[in-house]
Amino acid sequence: MSYDTVLNDADNVPGGEPARNDAAIAAACRDAGRARYRQGLLLVGLGVVVGAAVAATGVAARRRGRTVGAEGIEPPTTSL
Fold first, then answer.
1. Domain interval for residue 39
2. Predicted TM-score (pTM) of this structure
3. Do the bridges between strand 67-69 and strand 72-74 make them parallel or antiparallel, or are there none, so unpaired?
């Protein structure tokens, strides 16, 4: 079909004729694309926040069990 555009100056519209409301269709597509882009940014931002919270929780959990000794931070001793 691409040869039609190059050789015969076709408009590449499925069905042969452009839609009567092509401007409205294009505007609706742009609006939908912008909405999806905003949703994607929101999802990425939420992922960053959740990831940071998980990392902070892990760091806090590791530090909670340590004690400060003469040589600095030492892991806790366990008796079995």
1. 2-74
2. 0.53
3. antiparallel
